[in-house]
Amino acid sequence: MRAAALTLALAAGPAAAQDQCRLALLLGIDVSASVDASEYESQLNGVASALIAPEIVEAFLNGPGPVALSIYEWSGRFQQDLVIDWTLITSEDDLTRIAERVARQVRRSEDFPTALGYALGFAAGHFDDAPACLFQTLDISGDGQNNDGFTPGAAYEHFPFDGITVNGLAIGGASLMIEDYFYEQVIRGPGAFVEYATTHADFAAAMRRKLERELRVMILGDLALPTGQLPM
Fold first, then answer.
1. Which of 21, 22, 71, 158 gives 20 to 30 Å between its CA and that of 215?
2. CA–CA dist 75, 94 (Å, integer)
């Protein structure tokens, strides 16, 4: 799938490559019971501030083609709530509007467990509604291991994750082994990685690092690919 998309983009020439959506990026935010009110605010503010940080704005806008962005919150088995539906980012104003919307978000659930498998399953389905992009990346954050419903491994076995890279932002504090858990059970795909925040207070800086890494590109001829991604 990716190789075919790359071939078509290259065949169409540089102008077509600049118009092609290069990345569908989905952010998943943990709002399970282990996340208290102040930690929830830290996550919202962290995402909002990251989206308007100069280096992130530059990374969104100066690649070969636009990025489609969506954001959702997740906790229990049936608690997945869209915050931002798929939006094609073509200007700094787009990012500012999304950041303002995220900062105003009101928490919809707070007493549910950590159903990470269900959160992944929801993401796989949501990518079906994304614009046609060369790459698809899920950027999922969390401070605890799955403790409700099926596991991440089961989600990968039973949901359509072909062509989707899953990166993790592991938040320490609630679980001392959370970084290892994300490495072993959560991330998936070529070049997948884990960014680590020692506590929720470090979430904003970790989110900026993570977004920049996901959005930066390397040039292959007239076409650019996300860092760490190779044609498949």
1. 158
2. 27
Domain boundaries, the chain: 2-221
- 224: nearest Cα among 64, 70, 102, 107: 64
State pLDDT tens for residues 29-66: 999 999 999 999 999 999 999 999 999 999 999 988 99
Give one DSSP letter per residue of 52-117, joined into a string: TSHHHHHHHHSSSS-EEEEEEEE-STT-EEEEEEEEEE-SHHHHHHHHHHHHTPPP---S----HH
With a CB cutoff of 8 Å and minimum separation 6, the contacts of 92 are 52, 57, 61
d(CA 123, CA 73): 11
What is the overall mean pLDDT for the chain? 87
The architecture CATH gives domain 2-221? 3-Layer(aba) Sandwich (3.40)
Helix axes 203-215 and 37-51, enclosed angle (nearest 10)? 40
Indicate the pTM of the whole model: 0.86
Read off the amino acid at residue 19: D
48 and 103 in contact (C-beta within 8 Å)? yes
**Tokens 């092609």, located at residue:** 20
Which residues are registered as beta bridge partners of 168? 140, 194
Residue 4: CB atoms within 10 Å: 10
